[in-house]
Write a structure and sequence with these properties.
100 residues, alpha/beta, 3-stranded parallel β-sheet
């Protein structure tokens, strides 16, 4: 089991904080991403496929309602390395609903 990857779950707020360069969070998020890149697959960030949709635009793009090529490229690079970030699919058997 020592060869298994260590998984860290990031919700969409982690990705939006990274993309929008949130000053209080960016140093920590950068460090985690750097560790994942250097780990040769031993540290992997996992997130829901829904996060990719929720993180489709930077704050600047949302406010101005104009796509910015540089921002789009940054976001695309974030998702590109699947050895660092893995997308998890949600299925009805893996999600839980609570009744009232």
């Amino acid at each position: 089991m020592a060869d298994e990857a260590r998984l860290i779950y990031w919700d969409s707020n982690c990705f939006t904080s990274y993309i929008n360069e949130h000053p209080d969070r960016l140093p920590t998020l950068d460090a985690i991403l750097d560790d994942a890149h250097r780990s040769s697959g031993k540290l992997v960030i996992v997130t829901s496929v829904l996060s990719k949709v929720e993180v489709a635009f930077s704050l600047e793009e949302q406010l101005t309602r104009v796509l910015v090529a540089e921002e789009e490229a940054r976001i695309a690079r974030l998702w590109a390395d699947t050895s660092v970030i893995k997308l998890l699919r949600s299925t009805s058997s893996s999600s839980t609903t609570r009744g009232s």
